[in-house]
Design brief:
Length: 31
C-alpha cells in the first residue's frame, strides 16, 4: 500500500490505523 493520493505522506488518521495494526501484531510502532 502506498500513500499516493493522500498528500504523499501518511495522515494522522492513517498513522493511528498503522499503530493499531502494529499493536495487534505485537509491535510498538508509535514511538
Amino acid at each position: 500500500q502506498r500513500w499516493e493520493g493522500k498528500g504523499a505522506k501518511p495522515t494522522r488518521h492513517a498513522r493511528r490505523q498503522l499503530a493499531r495494526l502494529f499493536k495487534e501484531a505485537g509491535i510498538d510502532g508509535d514511538d
